[in-house]
Design brief:
Protein name: EI24 domain-containing protein
InterPro entries: CysZ/EI24
Shape: globular
Order of helices and strands: HHHHHHHHHH
Largest sheet: none
Number of strands: 0
Subcellular location: Membrane
Helix content: over 70%
Main location: membrane
Keywords: Membrane, Transmembrane, Transmembrane helix
Length: 242
């Protein structure tokens, strides 16, 4: 029942997150995290293109364009498209990793406006970097594991999208909850959100990441919504045990 109540409040949590987008502090944080995420995503896409180009040259020889006229131009086009797709896919992982690095700022912005009186513990920058890296590696590994299942469903057209959506919903829900709870956890207490709430939270962010323009805001909106959900669920827990 507790998990159902938390799940019902998800639309309200996102509404509160959207309402905070006009805050100048939020705008500064968004601009900073979006720019860094874009640079990293493009860099990863470009690195993949360079590696693929090097691989093609190593397999067919550096003079393959002379052997088959026009193939060089075709390879540039194909590699360019691959780079764009890779950068788009990398955005999901990179943007969440960058957001985790700035999670303290996001959580503090939400808490200062809605949950005054809380006393989160300060996380050293090194620990923030480790959390961000661990989350990025976990997301990369999970998506690589899901890749064969997605490829097996490629003939269904929508199958791969569903597989990646479900996998990333589970991942993102857990990551977003933890980035809030780790700053307030005391005496090893369990996080207050159940699986359904975490999954619906993650699925909402996955949906936002698929929408142009909104995908730039999705990491912040997810983190802000997670802050509301975690604190409200924790307040309900304390009220029941009081």
């Amino acid at each position: 029942m507790q998990d159902a109540i938390s799940a019902i409040s998800i639309p309200q949590a996102f509404a509160l997150a959207f309402a905070q987008l006009g805050d100048r502090r939020v705008i500064r944080l968004l601009v900073k995290s979006i720019l860094i995420s874009l640079v990293l995503a493009v860099a990863l896409g470009a690195a993949l293109v360079v590696l693929m180009g090097w691989g093609v040259g190593a397999i067919f020889g550096l003079d393959y364009d002379q052997q088959v006229p026009g193939v060089g131009v075709a390879m540039v086009v194909v590699l360019g498209l691959v780079g764009l797709i890779a950068a788009w896919l990398a955005w999901r992982i990179v943007s969440i990793a960058v957001l985790q690095f700035y999670a303290d700022d996001v959580v503090a912005l939400v808490e200062s406006g809605h949950y005054a009186g809380l006393s989160p513990r300060d996380l050293p920058m090194g620990e923030q970097a480790r959390i961000a890296l661990r989350g990025a590696v976990r997301a990369l590994v999970a998506n690589l594991i899901a890749l064969p299942f997605a490829l097996a469903l490629v003939f269904t057209a929508i199958g791969p999208a569903i597989v990646f959506a479900l996998v990333n919903a589970v991942l993102l829900g857990r990551e977003l909850q933890d980035m809030v709870w780790i700053r307030h956890q005391r005496d090893g207490a369990a996080a207050p959100l159940g699986f359904v709430s975490r999954f619906l939270l993650g699925l909402s962010v996955v949906g936002l990441l698929a929408v142009p323009i909104l995908n730039l805001l999705a990491p912040f909106l997810g983190a802000a919504a997670a802050t509301h959900l975690v604190h409200r669920a924790a307040l309900r827990q304390r009220a029941r045990h009081a």
